[in-house]
Amino acid sequence: MGTSQEQPNSACINSSSNGSSSQGTNVSYESSNMKKQFYTLESSQASTDFTAFDSDNNMNGSPICVYYSADNNSFELKQKLKELEITLLGPESDIVDSCQSFSNGNRHKGGSQHNWSEIVEMIPNLDLKEVLITCAQAVSDGDIESASGYMNNVLGKMVSVSGDPIQRLSAYMLEGLRARLESSGSVIYKALKCDEPTSNELMNYMQILYHACPYFKFAYISSNVFICEALQNESRIHIIDFQIAQGTQWLSLLQALTRRPGGPPFVRVTGIDDSQSFHARGGGLHIVGKKLADYAKTCGVPFEFHSVAMFGSDVQLEDLAVQNGEALAVNFPFALHHMPDESVSTENHRDRLLRLVRILSPKVVLLVEQESNTNTSPFFQRFVETLDYYTAMFESIDVALPRDDKKRISTEQHCVARDIVNIIACEGDERVERHELFGKWRARFSLAGFVPLPLSPSVIDSIRNLLKHFNENYRIEETDVAIYLAWKSRFMCTFSAWRCS
Predict the structure, then answer these.
(1) pLDDT tens across 377-413, in order?
(2) With CB atoms 3.0 to 4.6 Å apart as the test, which of 305, 339, 399, 478 could cross-link to 289 if both were Cys?
């Protein structure tokens, strides 16, 4: 779940072949026991309450977590891959161990002969996930011959953008592997070409995904309820939104503030832009400002909008125009994982922004992020984590939208696939989808001078009410400082709130 940004272009995919450039979501391999690119998925209407509105101390991650790291996990995975190789190639094959890395970065040109025609005949009995992982290991090892063989002879026949969840996800992961194998660095995006949808089409796809899954409503509702409670006695409220998108989140907040005893406060919203939202709404932040101002007027809420037409990592203190006497709330909805950190740049905008916000002394800072570990992990571990995370996401989409629905295919292509390809195909500053687990976010916030705020029953109750409108496989887990939204046993995203220490 990550919105695109004004960084190097992110990849997007055609449903039939290699995709292309457009704007562009940490594993020791980690997979939660609890089983979206943040897209600016927004509704065009407001309602009278948050839940109906459509529009750890563990540094290593989730409160309930299984670790599968490079240091202690390799035996089981090696065995699985070896079993698959034996299935594919027979017990007498002299193929190199699929988990063995090649020293000094040498690229293996293919040490064994694969009988691809025999393997193709076995496709009905093969496990798609296992073949995908075997192919990814070959890419990681530099075994170009094997990787290309799996892609062209096997995987291409097993994936489908209109199939079941794993078939659809694998179609886009296969494109990511192809892009990685065929290109490197900044060339990757140029190798991926697809036609951008029109603004109206992209907005429609975003709304389809917004209504199909609760991920963004989870972010908006939890943040809005917390703001109302934390700032209930303030007469002047200033909200800085680092992912303003279409501004829809604040319509329900404005409406809720009209019910405050004594009348609504003065509200000022500072919106920070991103390139995909600009494209989806067909213009600049003035569109958002007008929509919010018009709605505030109908609600009788004194309102002002301040636009910051730049990507979040470029924001400086003077851009935010904070005024004396304002109670400040800062909103990071699936936004911080797009900010490059110390592993990408010495500027480390991820931590720089948190320190900048700390200088402003906000009353509350809201954080919603995907619970995934793709930031600094090596390629193969990142691939396996991405496969696990997005399997859950595609399953959650599958229960809401028909498999043969062309709009569903386009929605996944333009709102999800680009993240997957970016995570798999790109490195360095070209990789803009860099998720971290809550434990790492907690460490970053603590180092920047914040402490977590306890979550009130009303926030938790609002999310429980939200989930009543979605599939029963969604659930939440609570700690003292965070709410985890899960699909089945996989954690998908977390909400937390912070104050200055």
Answers:
(1) 999 999 999 999 999 999 999 999 999 899 999 999 9
(2) 305
